[in-house]
Amino acid sequence: MLDWGYKYLMCPPQHFGVLYEINPWMHHEVQVDTEKAQAQWQFLVDTLQAAGASIVLQEPAPGWPDLVFTANAGIVSGDLFVASRFRHPERQGETPLDIAWFRAHGYRIEMLPEDIGHEGAGDALPFGDVLLSGYRFRSDMQAHTAISHLVKTAVRPIELVDDRLYHLDLSFCPLDERRAIMAPLAWDVYGCKVMEQLVPEPLVLEAYEALTFCANSVVVGKLVVMPSCPPRVGRRLESWGFSVVVCPVDEFLKAGGGCRCLTLALDVTLGRKAPEKENVSTDSDLSTGEGEVSLIQGESDG
Ligand code: ARG
After folding, report:
1. Best mutation site among 26, 28, 66, 166 for ligand 1 pocket (most ligand atoms within 8 Å of CB)
2. What's the pLDDT tens digit per position in 196-241?
3. Residue 231: which region, alpha, beta or left (left: phi > 0; alpha: psi -120 to 50)?
């Protein structure tokens, strides 16, 4: 089981809406049903709490509709908070609010260099003793050296190539030390190789499954809280001993976010545990193109 995922920062959707378009899912003319959004968000909170997770709240702020997506606030490791630098001005005003929250709660705050963008845990997820970090649509490739230095952990950059899956948490969901939900559709060839070498037992999504945002799930021990659960994915998770709860968050899908995006894990300490797989390649091994590359060939795991 994951040794994190029992404490989350969330932000009530009081001021949530689709007020601009910064990803392919957002359409200005689509109205958010505020009451429905509030009920869906509350059901997610209740589900996570019932699973044994504790939820800490951030104050919503008028004018910052995407503040609900706390996954993007920054990267947390122990008592360290590395604040995000958002690509789009529409979200940049969230950063001072996030910094204020983490400062008030006793965290050490670190900033990335000014000209380097990174969108926090939405683009950075731990697996074993490395941090996987997506880049291109929102985060910059250059962020990884700085992040690695700050969190004292090896960072593996993964290039994202499908703008519908613009943050890493839409294509990758760590389940335990050996398993993860993965949507290789979102990654370039090299990224697929990195993932394949890192994750001993992947649950590989078909494109149509990935586009339901089912990788954007919150894992609390043996429970997977999902925005949707395609039947094959559910069967595989259950065969691995997980149970599944679907929390419909379609009001938030209108803004391009699912369950995971609405949470930021606070009980993460990076760089502690190695995955149980031998021969995890070095970068030079990966570039030789040796070995099987089933993720790239788009094979499903049956
Ligand atoms: N509307 C938000 C944006 O485009 C959605 C953020 C989704 N967050 C995530 N961690 N994938 O930035």
Report:
1. 66
2. 999 999 999 999 999 999 999 999 999 999 999 999 999 999 999 9
3. alpha
Cβ–ligand 1 distance for 195 under 6 Å, the answer no
**Is 166 within the bounds of a domain?**
yes
195 assigned to some structural domain: yes
* Enclosing domain of residue 58: 7-272
Q: Which atom of ligand 1 is nearest to the CA of 255?
A: 1
Long-range CB contact pairs, 278-282, < 8 A, 24+: 279/197, 280/197, 280/198, 281/197
Query: Is the residue at 299 inside a domain?
Result: no
- Number of domains, the chain: 1
The answer to whether 68 touches 60, Cβ cutoff 8 Å, is yes
Does residue 23's CB lie within 6 angstroms of at least one atom of ligand 1?
yes
Q: What is the pLDDT of residues 102-127, one digit of tens each?
A: 999 999 999 999 999 999 999 999 99
Residue 47, domain CATH: 3.75.10.10
Instruction: Kindly list the catalytic residues.
Output: 167, 261
Beta carbon of 72 within 6 Å of any ligand 1 atom: yes
The span from the CA of 23 to the CA of 55, in Å, is 27
Neighbours of 283 (CB within 10 A): 9
Query: pTM, whole model, 2 decimals?
Result: 0.91
- Hey, whose CA ends up nearest to atom 9 of ligand 1? 261
